[in-house]
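Lay summary. Proteins are chains of building blocks that fold into shapes, and those shapes determine what they do. In this project we predict the shape from the chain. Here is one chain we studied, written as its sequence of building blocks.
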Amino acid sequence: MSMSRWMSLSRGVGVIGLGLALVSAAPAPSADGVTAILGATVFTATGEAPHVANVIIRDGRIAAVGPRVRAPRGASVIDAKGKALLPGFFDVHTHWTPAGAPNVTPAIANAYIAAGVTTVNDFHQSPESWQPRRAWIATLASPHVNFTARTSTPGGHGADWADVNTTKWVNTPEAARAAIRELVPYKPDVIKAFHDGWRYGTAADNTSMDEATLAALVDEAHKNHWPVGTHTVTVDRGRAAGRAKVDFIAHSLQDREVDAETIAAIKQGGTTYAPTLAVYEPVKPGMKPPENPDDPRFRQSVRKFGFALRNLKALHDAGVPIALGTDAGMPNTPHGSSTLREMELMVQAGLTPTDALMAGTANSARVLGELSDRGTIEPGKRADLVLVDGQPWKTITDVRKTVRVFVDGRQVHGPGTVLPKANGEVSLPAVTVAALIDDFERADGRTALDTLRTDDMDGGLDRTVQVSQVVAREAGNGRALSVAGKLSVKDDPQAAVILPLTRGSVAPVDARRYRGVRFDVRGGEGEHRLMVNTLAGRWAAEVKAGPQWRTVEVPFAELKRAPGRGAASGPWTGADLTEVEFAVSGQGGRKVWAELDNVTFY
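And here is the predicted shape, written in a compact code that computers can read:
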């Protein structure tokens, strides 16, 4: 089920029977809770020219549009003379980062609504996190968020970090179909395939997904009515994406000029193009040019960006539909403002301002299967709207002159807006949990807290090969978790397992009533450690493990800030825990093992 359908069902909102009455001799009826936007120049994104009209919003939907439509008696009236009213903008490629940390969600939502962005795809979160994140976002003034399931090849781009719940690893058509079927219980809105392993010439190529595997993945996703976007950045792979009937390419083709054969394949595949120019711009707004313009990396970025601009124009001129995505959340690509910058860059590439607005509204809605619900200003559509000063269909920079923004007919930005309290919070409220974290007696891969255990090997092209499984303990002592790995050849490789304290590690846990963590452990050679992950970062303590079982207690007071990436940035509070993690590391290329049981707070 798409996010739009899920939101509609959750609110009990239909798309018919909205009483679309035009002006008549009879007096306008009273209308508690109705909003009338009067006198705006309306860009409907339907192909008609912008024109002055009135727009009536009722029950979260557009009830009527037209120059002779009257405001019902009792409606809340907005005088919009001299302003432009457009459908809310889309961004089909975002990452709600940094590092997937859940405590940035309200700030990201605020940034999007302030920019008039009312629908986004989030390409970053694990399926386990979707249910609590959907519930959290429902408490915010926020754009609609489509959650995206990620797939890649073993060792491929996108599979070089995180676990196989966050990114499914596939390298055959059979594996691709199985991965899509595994996602059915999570109800993704979109599927992303990391199709192209080229690393822009700045790092070693990752493995790429072959065309047969991609085609099978697309076919299986389409059986579930899920659109598929690909990380595709080279011309040859763009041609393969078209042949595989991918719904949209979520990056620019930027290794060379696009050729006629590739353009034909993309058109024949019905594939839309979302070039994410904002992430590739060599010198972004607010940044200084490099001191050395002859730096090889900078020169290459300029060259790639030139291909990106010219290929966008060539594809557009050939009739390939253009959508809007940014890769926001990546370095120097901020949420919200990058969506507006993307439209400006489209115009820089040679598209008209109207072309750019269509990319950011109706075209994006169409490729996501949401055009029947939103993306244009028409009766019956969801009232996701942005009111701006100026005429952005003539001067694209006018998209930055935001006056008011509406999501589901509710004003979420502009004069008089009062945001929900949750929009000012940095995280969900902390919850309490039972002492028992996991005794590994469940057979479904979930902890005693009903959270999904995940592996946390080191990242990169060469990752530790890890197998985690529940095994029987001796002498009828129930079951334990076995973790075995062949360490990758790098500094500080590790095999590790994460025990989330809440589903998807979204809501933090207040553990101040406990003193520490207790567990049974045994293991082989290597360095064993307990880590406790919090909203402020990671804490760790060394653990001694030998061939015989022993019970270990680690007081919270003995935890120290973990070194390296993810290290805790603030003091220990005990009130913002998200995960308990166990790791074993050693010399690269060596084999390690550990067994774990009866993990509890005490």
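What the prediction tells us: Residues 1-30, 98-102 have pLDDT under 50 and may be disordered.
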